[in-house]
Amino acid sequence: MSKNIELRLENIYTGYDKADVLSDVSITVEPGKVTCILGSNGSGKSTLIRSILSLTPPRAGKVWFGDRDITGLPTHLVNRAGIACIPEGRKVFPKMTVEENLHVGAYQERSAAVIRKRLQEVYEIFPRLQERTDQLGGTMSGGEQAMLSIGRGLMAAPELLLIDEPSLGLSPLFVKETFNVIQRINEMGVTVLLVEQNVHQTLAVAHYGYVLMQGRVVAQAPTEELRNNAEVQQAYFG
Ligand SMILES: Nc1ncnc2c1ncn2[C@@H]1O[C@H](COP(=O)(O)OP(=O)(O)OP(=O)(O)O)[C@@H](O)[C@H]1O
Ligand SMILES: [Mg+2]
Question: Is the CB–ligand 1 distance for residue 36 below 6 Å?
Fold first, then answer.
């Protein structure tokens, strides 16, 4: 599946009004790997994802996807380049069925046969969704909605999947399942950029990590090193 495309943010500055929320952020997401962004509430994690997708285009700096400059590219074209997102809060369409929600994820794909094949792949990963194809998204449990939002992301058959706090609000069992699924997706060849607050489990699945504090990268290292890092300790344990 993977065409080995690297995502690179170079000296990114992004903000909503006057003040910058991200300052001079540079990160590399290595193809085939899980890269994580750790940071406490308000540190700019979601803004970083919004910068990649041009939902909030950077004020300065560059976003590269392979040798292609995708800085400020309209979101649907970022999607078409092979980048899909599982947004914070999941954003399942409540009035649409499970299967309709999944179809939305494949909105760039025209071939009905390809979409059917992807649906089958998603149902293999999440048998629970297959049991509930006609249930309305809004009536699914929190954990099921988490699975649905991941499934919807996979329906794009992305090169790179951006995942914003998938474990938020889930019980320990579902948290574990979510991280297992992320690992499995990665083993299928999808590159993952994972934003999380669940430090221990994130460091267990990710290969490389960055720590954001007040919109700046204060630490970066292979995850085994990050576990003992002082900034990580400070960011999460005060
Ligand atoms: N639409 C917006 N308009 C103005 N300010 C915003 C907007 N979105 C986010 N911010 C501000 O940008 C800063 C970073 O927010 P962001 O959502 O990126 O943080 P986060 O690390 O994802 O936090 P959390 O862990 O709570 O999701 C915060 O101070 C926030 O108030
Ligand atoms: Mg966030």
Answer: no
Our answer on whether the CB atom of 43 is closer than 6 Å to any ligand 1 atom is yes
- Closest residue to atom 6 of ligand 1, CA basis: 16
210 C-alpha vs ligand 1 centroid, how far in Å? Answer: 18
Question: CB neighbours (10 Å) of residue 178?
Answer: 23
Alpha helices (runs of H) in 43-198, residue ranges in sequence order: 45-52, 75-80, 98-105, 112-125, 127-130, 142-154, 172-187
**What number does the ligand 1 atom closest to the CA of 212 have?**
21
The reply to whether 87 falls in a domain is no
Please indicate whether residue 186, judged by its CB atom, sits closer than 6 Å to ligand 1.
no
- List per-block mean pLDDT (blocks of 10 residues) for the chain, which spans 238 residues: 82 93 97 95 95 97 97 96 92 95 93 95 94 94 92 95 92 90 94 92 94 94 87 68
Contact 150/181 with Cβ under 8 angstroms? yes
Q: How many domains are contained in the chain?
A: 1
Residue 99 lies in a domain: no
Range of the domain at 57: 7-82+158-237
Q: What is the CATH number of the domain that holds 14?
A: 3.40.50.300
Any domain includes 2? no
- To the question of pTM greater than 0.85 for the whole model, the response is yes
Give me the pLDDT at residue 197, please: 86
**Is any ligand 1 atom within 6 A of the Cβ of residue 16?**
yes
Asked if the structure places residue 149 within a domain, the reply is no
Ligand 1, atom 28, lies closest to the CA of 42
Q: What residue has token string 């700019």?
A: 44
